[in-house]
Amino acid sequence: MDYTIREMKKSEYPLLNDFLFESIFISEGIEAPPKSIINIPEFQVYVSDFGSSKHDKALIAEIDGRVIGAVWVRIMNDYGHVNDETPSFAISLYKEYRGLGIGIAMMREMLSILKASEYKQVSLSVQKANYAVKMYQKVGFEIYSEKEEEYIMINNLQL
């Protein structure tokens, strides 16, 4: 499958709302929440006014001109927040494009950008039951702390 990973254009930032919704982990047998859930403050922190900070960075994956995934970072007080110097990492692909290696490639590209920008680390939060835990570990994220249902993971960019 031929895909391209490139920097997200400012005109494409509204797509982050779709990918934010797609990034919500829904356990087997649980009904998906309404799309309006992304409007709560705990979720809006990921996308509101995206591009207004020098720490906001986003890449997309596309196939035949269609955007199929996004990875983005920003320094924010989100579920994966560890400190005010560490960007938080978010990634999502439409379901039909998962498991094909595109997400790993997107993550590696964003990690390279963060490393080149001299960030020391990047963090994320993930449900313990989410299959993506293994994917994050594959690209160098390690468990930093854990709560009842989720891990906070960090990728040390200085290694």
Overall description:
This protein is an alpha+beta fold. It has one domain (4-156): Gcn5-related N-acetyltransferase (GNAT) (Aminopeptidase). It is 21% helix and 28% strand. It has four helices and seven strands. Strands 1-2-3-4 form a four-stranded antiparallel β-sheet, sandwiched between helices. A three-stranded antiparallel β-sheet has the order 5-7-6, with helices on one face. The chain is globular and about 35 Å long. The termini are far apart. The model has no long low-confidence stretch (mean pLDDT 95).
Rounded to the nearest angstrom, the distance between the terminal CA atoms is 31 Å
How much strand? 25-35%
The shape, in one word, is globular
What is the number of E strands? 7
- The assigned structural class equals alpha+beta
Give a quick account of the main beta sheet: strands, pairing sense, barrel closure: 4 strands, antiparallel
> If you compute it from the alpha carbons, what radius of gyration comes out, rounded to the nearest whole angstrom?
15 Å
The H-level CATH homologous superfamily, spelled out, is Gcn5-related N-acetyltransferase (GNAT)
- According to CATH, the fold-level topology is Aminopeptidase
Number of domains: 1
Architecture (CATH level 2) name? 3-Layer(aba) Sandwich
Average pLDDT rating: 95
- The spatial strand order of the largest sheet comes to 1-2-3-4
The helix/strand order is: EHHEEEHEHEE
Low-confidence stretches at least 5 residues in length (pLDDT < 50)? Answer: none
Helix count, per DSSP?
Answer: 4
CATH hierarchy class name: Alpha Beta
Domain N-acetyltransferase: 3-158
GO molecular function, one term: acyltransferase activity, transferring groups other than amino-acyl groups
Keywords: Transferase
Organism: Clostridium sartagoforme
